[in-house]
Each structure stands twice: as C-alpha cells, then as structure tokens.
Amino acid sequence: MNDDVRNIVLGVIAAGISASLGWLARTYLWRRGLRRKQAFFGMPENSECLLVVNRDAGGDGAVHRHDVFALLELSALIKDCSAHAQIVSHDTAHQGFGERTEFCVGGPGSNRRMAAHLQSLLPGVQINTGPEPGPDRAAFQVGSERYRLEPGTSEHVLLARLTGGRDARPVFLLCGQRAIANQAASRYLIRHHEKLQRRHRGGSFVLLLKVVNSQAYGPDVVELVGDVTRAAQAPLPTAPRTSHRATG
Asked: Is the pTM of this model over 0.90?
C-alpha cells in the first residue's frame, strides 16, 4: 500500500469516526432534552395524560376553533414526549388530580373543571363570568389587581403549572379571557418550557400573559405581565383596589 492510498484510507476512517462521535453526541443531547421535557410536563414514556376540553360559552356547545388549535398543539407536545392523551369533556372529568398530567383549557365560564381548579388551587383568582355587558365583563382579579378585557386589543390569560405534592403529576391551566388567549398560552408554554423549567425548578407557578392586538397578529404576540404565583395562591383581599387596566 503506497502513501497516497494509506492517506485516503486513514482519511475515510477519521471521517467515519468523527461522524459517529457527532451522531452519538447529538443523540445524547436529544435524549437529555427529551428527559427534561418529560420531567417538566410529568409525562414519562408511555404514560397517560388528560386533555380537558371546554365548550364555547357563547355558541351551541361546540369547541371554539382557537381552543381546537390549542388542543392540537398540546397533542403534538404529548406525542413528542411519547405519552398518550385521553380527551375528556369538562363536565365528565369527575376525577382527582396528581395521578396523571392534566391540561385544562378554557375559562371557568365554559369549563367547569377549570372553575373547580381555580376555587381549590388558586383562591386568589376571581373571574367575572357574568353575561352582563360592561367594562368588567370577563375581567380577571388576581389578588388586589384587576385586568380588563379589550377584545382584539388586550386579552389576558393565566398559564399555571400546579402540583399537589412531590410525586404528583402537574396540572397545567390555560385560562384565557377569550379562546384566542388559550391558544396563545399553549404556544407560550411549548416555546418557553425550557426557560420555565430552569426558572421554577419544576415547581408550581402562575403566570399572567397578555395577548397584544390579536385582531392583527392572532395569538403570536404575547407579553408576560408578571409572575402572580403568590397572589394567586393566597386568599383574595377583603378590600380589592379600584379596577384598572393592566399596561403590561
């Protein structure tokens, strides 16, 4: 074997080793990222989770199209974690929480299970579900602060990850003033889950988000108003402040 042939063979071997090491490194990083995602969402491989579906409060009982989009995006997330989803209607989900990861979508006016979760887990949150028109229709009160709805311009949504104990699976609440805000919360959760995991270290959190100018940008432009975990988990104050509109 002359020097040229030997150099070619050595080059091929080196390239093969380099490619193999690169593939092993990428596989390791991918698996580590997957394990972290599964841990954050409480969905190990082949586990089951609940998708609790609401109903359009202003319609004929059908699911609003933006809520359908949110459910589809969450279903893709569940598939990425190699888990399985069980879809249940909000008025038939008569079971506790903590045994399986749960995604609950929709406000308390269209989702009875969301209303129960807010009452049990977030006593510092009050949502106006009355049909009467006015500036406080669908308004959120979180602690002493109130956040009003401006359809198409400023719409708020609570995004929460709540756990009942160290070994309990989490409950994710996507509670928006309108259906498009629910979809915005699902996108925010999926896009920012790594940052949320680092910041909250796998614990409970409640974030207040604002969807900006949805009539032009849909659910894509979202601002973080703040982390309202402490206020949401504490009882409501007896004398809340005068209503105001959040500026973000």
From this structure: no
